[in-house]
Specification:
Elements lengths: L4 H5 L22 E4 L5 H7 L5 E4 L2 E4 L2 E3 L4 E3 L6 E4 L23 E4 L1 E2 L5 E3 L5 E3 L2 E3 L6 E4 L5 E3 L2 E3 L4 E6 L5 E3 L2 E3 L4 E8 L5 E3 L2 E3 L3 E8 L8 E4 L2 E3 L3 E6 L6 E6 L2 E3 L4 E2 L7 E9 L2 E6 L2 E3 L9 E8 L3 E6 L2 E3 L6 E3 L5 E4 L6 E2 L5
Parallel strand pairs: 1-2, 2-5, 3-6, 4-7, 5-10, 6-11, 7-12, 10-13, 11-14, 12-15, 13-16, 14-17, 15-18, 16-19, 17-20, 18-21, 19-22, 20-23, 21-24, 22-25, 23-26, 24-28, 25-29, 26-30, 28-31, 29-32, 30-33, 31-34, 32-35, 34-36
Antiparallel strand pairs: 8-9, 27-28
Length: 357
Amino acid sequence: MGGRVGKIMAGVAGAALAATLLVPAGGAYGAVINVSPGQSIQAAVNAASPGDTIRVAAGVFREAVEVTKSLTIVGAGQGSTVLQPPTTPPTQSAICQDPNNKSVLNGFCIHGVFDSQMNLTTPVGPVKISGFTVKNFPQIGILFMGATSPVVDSTTLLNDAAYGTAAFVSTNDTFTNNIANKNGEAGIYVGDSPSANAVINNNQAANNGIGIFVRDSSGASSSSPGKVTNNLVRSNCIGVVFLNTGSGEAHWQASANQSSANDSFCPPSDGPSISGAGIGVAGATDVAVMNNLVTNNQPSQQATISGGIIVVNGATSVVVTGNDAHRNLPADLVWDQSGSATFTGNSCKTSIPANLC
């Protein structure tokens, strides 16, 4: 369960060679720039003004794209507009690329301005990416670093080595209607963002390490939590997890998700081994897990973290209510009793300790 900012900074990448563009006359604010097959998305980004829309036609685009201004980048649809790694790595800024290992690329790298101590000085945004398939990148499919109101919508994130899409040090994140499959660490990730206020809604995440991973990030308040809702997560090591590693994580609601058959195995790296886990809350504060369907999460190998709905590591003010949790092992509800949690109105048969159902 890796993924710290420093680790990401050491291995991120992407850019593209310039080509002919079809740009409306005048290039005015709010213009639309069209990119056809054989042309360059990066060249369109470079030519655009903040607030412009870049429309990318159907086709395969072998490049990696760095974005430092507010743009909307729209493909022709999942499976139609495909972004894959370039044959020759481009040269990008240090935020996106380790100069000593240029082959470690991201698909889209969207970032603000950071000082020499990696403190965000000027965020970028809003930036919206939609209508793409982004696949086979050796780092992250779509990376936001220091972004305001980033959006990934109706995009497929496939077989990227780290995360399908990830937002670090960002605010008001929105991930909706995406498919995130076969990504090495997590399908959708929000991390190191005290004011994430994220909405993660109506996504599918399957066969990743973790389906949806929220770490050291928070919603606005108890009355305005970040929301992970209406997602289908399956065949991961764990479907959804909220994790506080010491930087703080609070104010989340996980509701109306279906987390089933997450029976893959994640060996211990910088965290415990995980397999057969539906929804986990580890060390976080003020998390409501409500009205979810959590079924058939059974470990394929012996693991430290397993179970349907799991509350551990001093998680406090956790409410687990109205969930349908069945056929999970070692139990439908698991609580290590190290923090404070309330279990009410759940449909389940087994729990650790007993009598939580």
